[in-house]
Specification:
It contains 24 helices and 17 strands. It has 596 residues and is an alpha+beta fold. The two termini are 34 Å apart. Its EC number is 6.3.5.4.
Length: 596
């Protein structure tokens, strides 16, 4: 995993180009502490930059940007290709002569042999740019699950791209604040793709590639996502067998590295399964780590111990206390590439992974989204019933006393994004309007016309909930937070539940088998042979910190002077201080007002 950047501008001053690409890479040094590299083609005003976190082929031969032997193509790559060895063997039979042991060179070779069709063949997490010298085209490519970030801007006949939005602010081109980002953030708790905090800087959609034509200085975006397989797995025993086998295969692939790799063990079902499967593969070489708290209501230590008793590697547990948050708060805020109402937990676990000598950590992200682990899966019937009510009644719900019930208002939009915001929204439009001093009508129009993939309209029930959780919550919040918080420590987080082969297996399972009455029942059944009953037969807890009391005591986000000019926002902070509002809503206000 690394950080990448690039600028293509035929009309730019070459010295300025050189300086700008250096500034972009310098701003992302934390994500690539092992090496730095640049590529220049003055004839077309192209600059590629790279910051390296070395995990596969640690030698200088893995240096990037990398070129094919004949210099036909150049790549700057962030991520991992887990099936690179299989692809390398196949490409070798075509006569390609490999010079390195890296997965980066496999991408280059695959493109040389198969062109853009190669993008579908990669099983991994990736964001990369390839410049084709022969065709005079440059491609930006992002993995189908959106694990690795890739942002771009195409203003004034130029293409600029980067792994982080912050990098765009470091260069000579004038990027201004996106005026709508605060609306998105206060509603979603994150900034949903394709939008960012900067105007004209967008997130490339997962499973897509952007083609930049150097001759015409134009671009187009194309999907390379595979067609979903037919749901042929209808028998429970077959579903269990396939989930068991393909997840174990995925974990084995994700353990491939030439640098120290470990597992984050929270004590929940997902991380416990990943830990036990990793232990089966690596045994005494496995390093696992956990976080615990003095506040026993938040500690899962007893469940972690049940798992570590079954493993043979080295386990480290770390105690996080209120003073740790107080001491690290400003550093955590600085690590955020985009505003988020989550991510503090991820910052800490990656801090300790770094201290533990690791370069990569396996995580259980994705299981709840794929197997029905969230409350949203049981609420789709409620949505269907509520949407039968007249819109004026749904709109009236904004006046209800309960904050959760107020969100019924979002169902008046009659579009999928309204359903998601009913399930997971933060502030309703009326509150957002008062916080930002804008009209509620403007907010309603923005969300009623929000761009969303038409695929979701073809789904219903738990499959629809899974789409919401995967494509909105996970991609925009969990994966994004995990990426910039881990990379702030120079750590790579790998997510076996999002392995492409595993996802294809899940997509082929009929809904009645994939989403039984018991939450995550299919996943539990697939690993009951190794998973202690005490871990899976208990209420869902989730990996959370005691932030409610810590933030109230610490006062980091509740200084009323910050909100002095807005009576409504000040009132919300007073509610938080009185323990009548969740910390995440107060944290959202803080991030909005600190930017004013």
């Amino acid at each position: 995993m690394c950080r990448i950047a690039g600028i293509i501008d035929k009309n730019a001053d070459l010295e300025q180009l050189e300086n700008d690409i250096k500034l972009m890479c310098d701003s992302m040094q934390h994500g690539g502490p092992d090496d730095e590299g640049f590529y220049a083609d003055d004839s077309i005003g192209l600059r590629f930059g790279h910051r390296r976190l070395a995990l596969i082929d640690l030698s200088s031969r893995g240096h990037q940007p990398m070129q094919t032997p004949g210099k036909e193509s150049i790549i700057t790559f962030n991520g991992e290709i887990y099936n690179f060895r299989e692809l390398k063997a196949e490409l070798s039979t075509s006569g390609y002569q490999f010079q390195t042991e890296s997965d980066t060179e496999v991408i280059l070779a695959a493109y040389q042999i198969w062109g853009t069709k190669s993008f579908q063949k990669f099983n991994g997490m990736f964001a990369f740019a390839i410049h084709d010298q022969i065709k005079q085209l440059t491609y930006l490519v992002r993995d189908p699950s959106g694990i690795k970030p890739l942002y771009y801007s195409t203003q004034q006949n130029r293409l600029v791209f980067s792994s982080e939005v912050k990098a765009f602010e470091k260069i000579s081109y004038p990027y201004v604040e996106e005026p709508k980002w605060k609306i998105y953030f206060l509603a979603f708790g994150h900034i949903p793709q394709p939008f960012t905090t900067l105007q004209a800087v967008f997130s490339l959609k997962p499973g897509n590639f952007l083609t930049w034509n150097h001759q015409h200085q134009t671009y187009e975006i194309t999907s390379f996502e595979k067609i979903a397989p037919a749901k042929t797995v209808t028998a429970a025993i077959e579903a269990v067998t396939q989930v068991n086998k393909t997840l174990e295969d995925a974990v084995n692939c994700h353990l491939i590295a030439d640098a120290p790799i470990g597992v984050f063990l929270s004590g929940g079902i997902d991380s416990s399964i990943i830990t036990l499967l990793a232990d089966k593969k690596t045994g005494q070489n496995l390093k696992s780590l956990s976080i615990n708290f003095g506040e026993k209501a938040f500690s899962e230590e007893k469940y972690q111990q049940l798992i570590t008793a079954k493993t043979s590697g080295i386990h480290q547990t770390y105690l996080v206390e209120e003073q740790d948050l107080n001491a690290s708060f400003e550093t955590i805020m600085h690590a955020m590439d985009q505003p988020t109402n989550d991510g503090i937990n991820s910052w800490f676990v990656n801090k300790y992974a770094k201290e533990n000598g690791l370069k990569a950590v396996l995580s259980g992200i994705g299981a709840d989204e794929l197997f029905g682990g969230y409350p949203s899966f049981s609420r789709m019937g409620i949505i269907k019933a509520l949407k039968m009510l007249p819109p004026f009644i749904l709109r009236f719900c904004r006046k209800l006393p309960s904050e959760k019930l107020k969100r019924i208002y979002y169902l008046s939009y009659r579009n999928p994004i309204g359903e998601y915001l009913f399930l997971r929204g933060f502030y309703i439009p009326e509150a957002i309007a008062r916080i930002l001093n804008i009209s509620k009508k403007e907010i309603d129009q923005l969300f009623e016309n929000f761009p969303i993939d038409e695929k979701v309209s073809q789904l219903s029930g738990p499959e629809r909930a899974s789409w919401f959780e995967t494509h909105i919550f996970m991609q925009n919040q969990l994966l994004k937070d995990t990426d910039f918080m881990s990379m702030s420590h120079g750590i790579e987080v790998r997510v076996p539940f999002l392995d492409q082969n595993f996802l294809e297996t899940i997509d082929g399972i009929a809904p009645q088998q994939r989403f039984p009455a018991e939450k995550k029942g299919l996943l539990i059944e697939a690993f009951k042979n190794i998973l202690p009953e005490a871990v899976w037969n208990r209420p869902k807890m989730g990996f959370s910190f005691p932030l409610q009391q810590w933030f109230i005591k610490g006062g980091q986000i509740s200084n009323e002077q910050l909100y002095a000019g807005n009576g409504f926002a000040k009132q919300q902070i007073q509610k938080f201080k009185a323990g009548k509002m969740h910390w995440s809503k107060a944290f959202a206000l803080y991030q909005v007002f600190i930017k004013n």
